[in-house]
Specification:
By secondary structure, the protein is of the alpha/beta class. The protein folds into three domains: 353 residues, TIM Barrel; 236 residues, Glycoside hydrolase family 3 C-terminal domain (Rossmann fold), CATH 3.40.50.1700; 113 residues, Immunoglobulin-like, CATH 2.60.40. It has a six-stranded mixed β-sheet with strand order 9-17-16-12-10-11. α2 packs across α13, α5 runs parallel beside α6 and α14 packs across α19. The protein is globular, with a radius of gyration of 27 Å. The relative contact order is 0.11.
Length: 735
């Protein structure tokens, strides 16, 4: 393969030499020069039309300059997506429940390995269609999941800025790999910059306006960390306006903050057809020409859309300079050199295709699925005995593809919860027929057609009693309920009670499912609810009716086995909620209000049903009294002894929160550290969580930024955010 690529490069160089003096080698063909120097030089040889063509996501080849076709649009939300077989890991909101940054880095290292393998195959085949085959992944989504009704929230890492930052940086490290002077493995992308979290139905016209405190305390920290600490190479701007200006034209965010304050020098890409929204949705500019001029002037380098071809007309009208275009295309070409795809030789050229969908990656998918499952409620029924006679029903009982979520790849093998439970042996009976939602026809379902069978097109007079009658010989019923990515997700055409365009209008379980669960409970059945959803649910009723509730999210290809492992106790559950599970809809603020007041565990003053950080185990853990200790390198840490006081081995997540009594407008508490600990029955260990300047970042009205603020803090520690369960220690921070 290297020989064929080398011949292509030689041919391209000879072609270029015909256009320039033969006495000098072009800088852009000299691999000893820096990527920036080579990019600046190759741009000098381009026509305006060539520059414009290369600023579009689906970039054509420019053969005379040795530039091959390239498509910037690729997805790796939870594994390589939309490009054939790949390992399908859990959705990000599920992986966030692991509170395991190290494991996420492993997951996305495996993902980038599979992406490189697919790239190598496509290039060797000289594919003309490079769609979803490139090395620029539009991942991770680090928007704050401020409201659980947002359909795309399942693509995020939850409601907390610190957790989002830590897990988002792990994703970047896994995708981009260790990068020194040579090529980079792939380009990750922080999206959607910067204040973006629904509603889906108005995202093309919505104006997000927030206080400066909320901006810097909640919406920007993850973006800042990924840029300044993880060196993410791409940033995607959002659809909506921010403070009256479209995100992609907002020079305060794009130039002043992103570029000047944070030093971002990577590629800025538009969300798909977001530039069109400048005039079609926001009515902010008059037409495509004005819109693309504003976007490029603000810093857009690469467009997913069709506005960039209007650049020459914008230049002719004096709306945009050639220098601005050169700035963008130079950056685009610099990063194509950085990927190694211009020269054709990288350290990943010989990755074995056997790693694609390998047993190693399958095992990794199972491990992260295990850690993602959250046991919300358990009245002693779990773990199950393998000899127990069980009935399983519900719309998600035998739905393998539901587990894949959205932006997914296609695993070599698929299995459902039913498959996982059957693999444990025993007397298992399954009955079909419970729909997801009443009043939704199959024609209205967008998404995988295989899932349409779970919808009841004519649900009037739905007979709940026949399901109760079917359970007459069973003491224990597993109800596999919840939602699916064809009901909640990105801008879906779904209209049914409880749903609106991909978002939800209620946190309640669909009424038909509630009725079945209640009827089973009233009939004296022991009910285990296994809930599949990409967000929080309001389970106040179900907590009374069910003997156990398991939050199973969308767990990817190994989800069915992972849940069965937990139900039967082969694996002890250890997941923790990355967002608040409210008691009911009355506890929610206005969906379109981006103020953090009353939102998330940080500002919500009510009593949630299940708090952020909550997650039960089949064993018990006891926390000792923490102390602040100096570590070997001279830094400080909160050190606490954790003992497994139960009869089973298990894992717990030690969580550190801080608060300030002298700031009544600030958060009630906010996460600043976490660490997993695995303990055998009766075993104890000291857990150390670093304490440094970043631990005490707090809103500083004097600077209008988050700064390490001196003063008196309360440090809260435990395995949940629930104040009643947390222990505290006072600490005075001084720089």
């Amino acid at each position: 393969m290297k020989l064929r690529i080398s011949r292509l490069i030689i041919t391209a160089i000879l072609s270029v030499m015909a256009y320039i003096p033969c006495s000098a080698q072009p800088t852009f063909t000299d691999a000893s020069r820096s990527n920036r120097e080579r990019a600046e030089d190759i741009v000098k040889h381009m026509t305006l039309q060539e520059k414009v063509a290369l600023m579009v996501y689906n970039s054509p080849a420019v053969e005379r300059l040795g530039i091959r076709n390239y498509n910037w649009w690729n997805e790796a939300l939870h594994g390589i997506a939309r490009n054939g077989n790949a390992t399908v890991f859990p959705m990000p909101i599920a992986m966030a429940s692991s509170f395991d940054a190290d494991l996420l880095e492993q997951v996305f290292t495996a993902t980038s390995d599979e992406g490189r393998i697919k790239w190598n195959i496509a290039r060797a085949a000289k594919d003309k269609d490079m769609w979803y085959k490139g090395l620029s992944y539009w991942t991770p989504n680090i928007n704050i999941f401020r409201d659980p009704r947002w359909g795309r929230g399942m693509e995020t890492y939850g409601e907390d800025p610190y957790l989002t930052s830590q897990l988002g940086m792990a994703v970047v490290r896994g995708l981009q790999g260790e990068h020194q002077d040579g090529p980079i493995k792939a380009l990750a992308c922080a999206k959607h910059y910067a204040i973006h979290s629904g509603p889906e139905s108005t995202r093309h016209s919505f104006d997000a306006v927030v206080s400066e405190r909320d901006l810097w305390e909640t919406y920007l920290p993850a973006f800042k960390d990924l840029i300044t600490k993880a060196d993410v190479k791409q940033v995607m701007f959002a659809y909506n306006r921010m403070f009256g200006i479209p995100a992609g034209a907002n020079e305060r965010f794009m130039r002043d903050i992103l570029e000047k304050e944070w030093g971002f020098d990577g590629v800025v890409v538009s969300d798909c057809w977001a530039v069109k929204d400048f005039y079609a949705g926001h009515k902010w500019s008059a037409n495509k020409i004005e819109a693309v001029a504003a976007a490029v002037k603000a810093g857009m380098d690469m467009e997913c859309g069709d506005a960039v071809p209007a650049i020459p007309e914008a230049i002719r009208r004096g709306l945009l300079s050639v220098e601005s275009v050169d700035e963008s295309i130079t950056k685009v070409m610099e990063y194509r050199y950085l990927l190694g795809e211009m020269d054709g030789e990288t350290p990943w050229d010989n990755l074995s295709p056997d790693k694609l969908c390998s047993q190693e990656h399958k095992d990794l998918a199972l491990k992260i699925a295990h850690e993602s499952i959250v046991l919300l409620e358990n009245k002693g029924i779990l773990p199950l005995q393998k000899s127990e006679k069980l009935l399983i029903m519900g719309p998600n009982a035998d739905q393998a593809r539901m587990l894949w979520g959205n932006y997914n790849g296609f695993p070599l093998n698929e299995s459902s919860l039913l498959d996982g439970i059957k693999s444990k042996g025993g007397n298992i009976q399954h009955i079909e027929g419970v729909p997801y939602v009443e009043g939704l026809t199959t024609a209205a379902v967008t998404g995988d057609v295989a899932m349409k069978a779970a919808f009841n097109p004519d649900s009037k007079g739905f007979d709940v009693e026949k399901f109760v009658a079917a359970a007459k010989d069973y003491k224990t019923v597993i109800f596999a309920g919840g939602l699916a990515s064809c009901l909640e997700g990105e801008q879906l055409e779904v209209s049914a009670p409880g749903f609106d365009g991909g978002d939800r209008t209620t946190l309640s379980l669909p009424d038909v499912q509630k009725r079945v669960i209640k009827a089973l409970h009233d009939a004296g059945k022991r009910v285990i609810l296994v809930n599949f959803s990409g967000s929080a649910m309001a389970f106040a009723d179900e907590a009374k009716w069910c003997d156990a509730i398991v939050q199973a999210w969308y767990l990817g290809q190994e989800g069915g086995k992972a849940i069965a492992d937990v139900l039967y106790g082969d694996v002890n559950p250890s997941g923790k909620l990355p967002l608040t599970f409210y008691a009911d809809d009355s506890q929610l603020a206005d969906f379109e209000d981006y103020s953090m007041k009353g939102r998330t565990y940080r500002y919500f003053e009510g009593k949630p049903l299940y708090p952020f950080g909550h997650g039960l185990s089949y064993t018990t853990f006891k926390f000792g009294k923490a102390r602040i200790a100096e570590t070997a390198d001279g830094s400080k840490a909160l050190v606490v002894t954790v003992r497994n006081t139960g009869k089973r081995a298990g894992e717990d997540v030690v969580q550190l929160y801080i608060s300030r009594a002298d700031d009544p407008e600030g958060p009630i508490k906010t996460l600043r550290g976490f660490k997993r600990v695995a303990l055998k029955a009766g075993e104890q260990a000291e857990v150390s969580i670093p304490i440094n300047d970043d631990t005490f970042l707090w809103w500083n009205p004097a600077t209008g930024r988050m700064n390490p603020m001196e003063g008196e803090y309360t440090l809260h520690y435990g395995d949940t955010s629930d104040s009643k369960s947390l222990k505290t220690i006072k600490y005075r921070f001084k720089k």
